[in-house]
Amino acid sequence: MRSSLIRSATTSLTRGNFAKISSSDLSFFERTVGSSYVKTKDIDNYTCDWTKQMKGSSKCVLIPSSTEETSTILKYCAEKRIAVVVQAGNTGLVGGATPLFDEIILSTSRINNNFHLEESSGVLTLDAGIILADADYLLAEKGFMMPLDLGAKGSCQIGGCIAAGAGGIRLLRYGSLHSHLLGCTLVDGKGTIIKLGGSLRKDNTSLHTAHLTIGSEGQLGVITSVTMGVVPRPISILCAMLAVSSYSHCLRLLSLARSKLGEILSSFELIDGETMKCVERHLPIKNIFNEPHDFYLLIETHGSNGDHDGEKLNEFVEEALGAELAEDGVAAHSENERTHMWRLREESPIAAAKDGYIYKFDVSLPLEHFYRLTEETRKKLGTRARVYCYGHLGDGNSHLNVTTDGEDEELKKELSPFVYNWVVSHGGSISAEHGIGQLKRDYRSLGKSEEEISLIRSLKGVFDPHRILCPYKMIPSQE
Amino acid sequence: MRSSLIRSATTSLTRGNFAKISSSDLSFFERTVGSSYVKTKDIDNYTCDWTKQMKGSSKCVLIPSSTEETSTILKYCAEKRIAVVVQAGNTGLVGGATPLFDEIILSTSRINNNFHLEESSGVLTLDAGIILADADYLLAEKGFMMPLDLGAKGSCQIGGCIAAGAGGIRLLRYGSLHSHLLGCTLVDGKGTIIKLGGSLRKDNTSLHTAHLTIGSEGQLGVITSVTMGVVPRPISILCAMLAVSSYSHCLRLLSLARSKLGEILSSFELIDGETMKCVERHLPIKNIFNEPHDFYLLIETHGSNGDHDGEKLNEFVEEALGAELAEDGVAAHSENERTHMWRLREESPIAAAKDGYIYKFDVSLPLEHFYRLTEETRKKLGTRARVYCYGHLGDGNSHLNVTTDGEDEELKKELSPFVYNWVVSHGGSISAEHGIGQLKRDYRSLGKSEEEISLIRSLKGVFDPHRILCPYKMIPSQE
């Protein structure tokens, strides 16, 4: 049986039956990680998410430097029933790493010493607190690349990426984290250190438990080390942009790109006409096309041979124009032009944020419904709001943004239930890559069967029997 | 703490405390699936594995036609504490689908009606009993391909592939099943039907539980439906073979292939000189090189543009010869030549089986140790046995084969402990793609920590609390 569609987003939360922090607890933590790494003051950077929309409170932030210190802390917290929220780079978009009541914050930022690349196999083992861009920088020297790339790469940590199930802009080419993760070290909610998986590309000697940590949002434990396959750094990166008159043409162009660009297609991003106008209105960036169009597609290729890739991309653009699927099209001829194209896409969220009070969504939809959500939302809201759509069309992942001139309580109450019910009733997901956290907590059971909810609750019980880790978020407790 | 290396492979098994099948049980099963699908006679094809090395007994084979019938059976068996072994195409190599004592056999062969491809996204939902080659044939019409390919494709079922964590010959290019699986329907050991995951390429609204079924060997439940991403069918498939004088050159050629062939490299297979001689000795196939060599590499590319792929492959072969990394090299110029090359590799196991009494291994190793295992085994066994090595070098997966003129009890006792201890102490896996089943049961804890074993035992308890599914195999019970 599936849960019926929800009508309202309001649930009042009450604090769980967790222990309050005492001074003897703080002394224990100080003995464990050193007093400089038990922070009790000036911790706003930790208690507030980076969008500044969610703010919790906490008695202390603990910053262990190792798996073992993490284990000591969690053993203690399990015994004392102290609630803990795990925080990596604090770049999440759903408040998953932000405390709600008085959970202590366990930051993985100092677990960042070990980095070992096995060059012959392309297998990387690294501490979970290492920042994504730093890992990628170290790999570049050896001709390798992190398979995932996202806006937050300069701050997000690899352990956080795993826990968030991060997607990003080249999932189309390299696949999700499930394609790359081989193993990890997890400190579970009892403080037990468990090595899940290993460092081999093939190993069928046990359940593939490491994959349970992807998208687990700290519910099962603290990831302290990650082993994953990395990919050869592409020798050629090319980029083109097309202007398109209808969504159905966008879909036909996606098919054409799949067949013409094949194995080198790495990004297929959509920006709708309203979003492009919004970008031009609020930011000092010009559309690369002189005329306005209804849709823009940004296509990138990653390959090992620049001549071959260039031929493929030119053929694709020519065929797109020749078949009148695209109204206009341009390939980037310099790094500057490529940067310009990507800025239009990557600064779309920034432009939308400048456009007024903002309501952000991150949904997955079957492709036939991908853009209908935008159209239906526009129809529903009429002149009450502006609706923007951009996203990873190649992955069916739409970032819908709605803005109003000021905060509109009425609209706030209506909008999320409308969008989420529409998405679920059209076979979509209410969170493609951002997760549930606290922002989508009230919708976490939407479209899920009782059996699945019961299963994930039991699985959490195996890893975290006292349910001290990241309460009030993705996995329902017995409440 | 890791389990210490084992010394002997002998464990005497006793039957678990399961119910014996009564005539009223059989009547219930007949009412559930129809009397034609409760087989009690002439069931040797089910009680014996296809290698004919493992033979169990069973009172009956049940062949349900749907998820619902499977659920009814498992609910009943859970209540009555009847042990069940799940069987798909019965092509496994470790006896995982073969009963030991008197477990009933639940075959998924009739759960094979539904096949739905969503063309715009390349997402396929199909019943678990559909045969891999049939699925691939249906996809071919639409320009898509199953990402995995293996020798048993004409008989193995897709649900069995997931449960086995099947690898195969193009994992290097398309990745493991974790890269493709999006969701599945599982009937757990309580008979509960659970939809795990979904049909979207991105969905972060729950734990990614579907991935737990990969390589689960029937321990968690019966997979009845699978949803996965499929890949565009390559337009160009090219093949080349190199003759090489040393293993270190093989490794340098793997690096060269990664950089020259990049995104189109789909197979990088090794056959050692002894294996090639064995093939020529026992089978009517000729080596494609006139002179014998110490190593042969078979390289295949899958791409979207034949001209580009051909240029890349030629450049690679020329550089391999020019740098004297290869002693000889030839690209296939016809489908016949390509078939010839692949027969040399695919019939290596057949030749080894004809060479005498055979001991087969399927191990993963870090690449620097990949071939050392063969050398060390040869050194240890001297003239007592012949040692052959072939396998998926690109994945670090070696199929080591040892043959003797007749069955040698002494060697039988020594060999597996020697190989498995060597593999584990060199950072490898004792089962790269075949699994544990009953064949490797006595080695299942080798190199695993107590914490991991305890975890997988608890996870099994969540799905199958009465531990009726596939007993005596991968996951230790409390015994």
Automatic annotation (TrEMBL), chains A, B:
EC number: 1.1.99.39
Residue stretches making up the FAD-binding PCMH-type domain: 54-233
Cellular component terms per the entry's GO annotation: mitochondrion
Regions crossing the membrane: none
Highest taxon, organism lineage: Eukaryota
Example of a GO MF term: FAD binding
Keyword Ligase carried by entry: no
Alphabetic keyword roster: FAD, Flavoprotein, Oxidoreductase
Cofactor(s) it depends on: FAD
Reaction(s) catalysed (UniProt annotation): (R)-malate + A = oxaloacetate + AH2
InterPro entries: FAD-bd_oxidored_4_C, FAD-bd_PCMH, FAD-bd_PCMH-like_sf, FAD-bd_PCMH_sub1, FAD-bd_PCMH_sub2, FAD-linked_Oxase-like_C, FAD-oxidored/transferase_4, Oxid_FAD_bind_N
Family classification: Belongs to the FAD-binding oxidoreductase/transferase type 4 family.
Record's function text: Catalyzes the oxidation of D-2-hydroxyglutarate (D-2-HG) to alpha-ketoglutarate. Also catalyzes the oxidation of other D-2-hydroxyacids, such as D-malate (D-MAL) and D-lactate (D-LAC). Exhibits high activities towards D-2-HG and D-MAL but a very weak activity towards D-LAC.
PANTHER family: D-2-HYDROXYGLUTARATE DEHYDROGENASE, MITOCHONDRIAL
Identification of the protein by name: D-2-hydroxyglutarate dehydrogenase, mitochondrial
